[in-house]
């Protein structure tokens, strides 16, 4: 399209230069230039990467002031839930009060294959450092307009099939301490990018908060809120987004199965690298959303704008035929910054809980893969008693992953 516009502009320039000067011709040329500008802005994209990649703003998936596309009517492209408040200058997902949650969700499933998302937001409150929470999340998921309780109830019914009723209280406290993920359901299917402002894991020293991370879920992998998602995220970066004078900006790009996250916290209009992961596969037809939650600690979480751009990318015939039906990722960066191949998104559930009193690592049925001290073992454990755990001496800190 851009090539067509350039050729059209050249032809018009040649025609204009050949016209004799007169007031009538001056009016005609002015009118023609106005039409050309309108055509260029509506039909052509902006080339921001290379000669073969252009971006187009998709208004049906975007939100900006005065937020006319957000509401409960059937004609609205977006709807909101929880404690969300629509204000003239921003959308307040949660106020600086305890135990609040809010979200906005697109009504339209997104069938754009390659895209770039730019989110403008602000997190601020009266609490001092590390006395505030919890953060916000940006979503592209199969589920929409849900909260954490629905997910926990469904998982409990699954556990009823596997475990005796006498163990249900034990598993409820261990498997579902997080309840929800920044105001959205856990065990989500799709992509979540988290702006986490509070360190729930007080033993964690390798990360400085606020911390931005990303996770790809397949509907059966849990985000462990108590450990800030360290066992399932794809990596991330520290970003001091709270109580800063200017607005914060987050860029999320998904192009050719590569996920890139960048930030602009200082308001200098310069993007800084945060996360870059190849081999990320996201199906089409999922929903965009933004959610937030507060607990015992709180903050104002304000969404200012949400702009989605479609990226036009040249693809090979093999890439065009690729069909993705389930979210997955080939690589995961561990807490030490190392990349591990294909270890997470064939998982059913991740467990890292160790109980010193009983000296056990909790296991479940099916096939479990563990990595302790660099040694990989496979445990085939079958349910034969009331106990849904197995005694495992000396395995504190081992990560157990349940595969289907």
Automatic annotation (TrEMBL):
The keyword Transmembrane helix belongs to this UniProt entry's keyword annotation: yes
Report the subcellular localization. Answer: Membrane
Q: Name the InterPro entries for this protein.
A: ConA-like_dom_sf, Intracellular_Lectin-GPT, Lectin_leg
- Ranges for domain L-type lectin-like: 55-311
Which topology term describes how it sits in the membrane?
A: Single-pass type I membrane protein
Give the record's GO biological process terms. Answer: endoplasmic reticulum to Golgi vesicle-mediated transport
For this UniProt record, give its keywords in alphabetical order, as a comma-separated list: Membrane, Signal, Transmembrane, Transmembrane helix
Spell out the protein name for this chain. Answer: Lectin, mannose-binding 2-like b
Q: Which organism is it from?
A: Cyprinus carpio carpio
């Amino acid at each position: 399209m851009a090539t067509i516009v350039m050729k059209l502009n050249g032809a018009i320039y040649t025609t204009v230069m050949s016209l004799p000067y007169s007031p009538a011709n001056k009016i005609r040329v002015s009118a023609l230039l106005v039409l050309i500008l309108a055509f260029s802005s509506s039909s052509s994209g902006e080339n921001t990467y290379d000669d073969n990649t252009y971006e187009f703003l998709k208004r049906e998936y975007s939100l900006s002031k005065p937020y006319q596309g957000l509401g409960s009517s059937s004609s609205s492209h977006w709807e909101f839930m929880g404690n969300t408040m629509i204000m003239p200058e921003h959308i307040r997902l949660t106020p600086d009060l305890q135990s609040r949650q809010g979200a906005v969700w697109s009504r339209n499933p997104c069938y754009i294959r390659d895209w770039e998302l730019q989110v403008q937001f602000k997190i601020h409150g009266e609490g001092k450092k590390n006395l505030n929470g919890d953060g916000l999340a940006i979503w592209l998921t199969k589920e929409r307009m849900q909260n954490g309780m629905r997910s926990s109830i469904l998982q409990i019914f699954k556990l009823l099939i596997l475990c005796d009723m006498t163990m249900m209280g034990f598993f409820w406290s261990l498997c579902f301490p997080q309840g929800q993920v920044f105001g959205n359901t856990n065990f989500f299917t799709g992509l979540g990018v988290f702006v986490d402002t509070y360190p729930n894991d007080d033993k964690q020293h390798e990360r400085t908060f606020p911390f931005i991370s990303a996770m790809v879920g397949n509907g059966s992998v849990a985000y462990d809120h108590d450990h800030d998602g360290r066992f399932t995220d794809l990596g991330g970066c520290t970003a001091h987004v709270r109580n800063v004078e200017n607005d914060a900006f987050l860029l999320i790009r998904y192009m050719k199965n590569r996920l890139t996250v960048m930030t602009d916290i200082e308001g200098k209009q310069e993007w800084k690298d945060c996360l870059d992961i190849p081999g990320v596969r996201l199906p089409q037809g999922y929903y965009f959303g933004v959610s937030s939650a507060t607990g015992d600690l709180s903050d104002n979480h304000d969404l200012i704008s949400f702009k989605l751009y479609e990226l036009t990318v040249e693809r090979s015939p093999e890439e065009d035929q690729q069909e993705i039906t389930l979210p997955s990722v080939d690589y995961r960066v561990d807490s030490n910054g190392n990349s591990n191949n294909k270890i997470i998104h064939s998982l059913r559930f991740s467990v890292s809980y160790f109980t010193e009193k009983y000296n056990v690592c909790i296991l479940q049925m099916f096939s479990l893969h563990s990595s302790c001290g660099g040694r990989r073992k496979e445990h085939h454990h079958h349910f034969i008693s009331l106990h849904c755990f197995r005694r495992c001496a000396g395995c504190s800190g081992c990560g157990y992953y349940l595969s289907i």
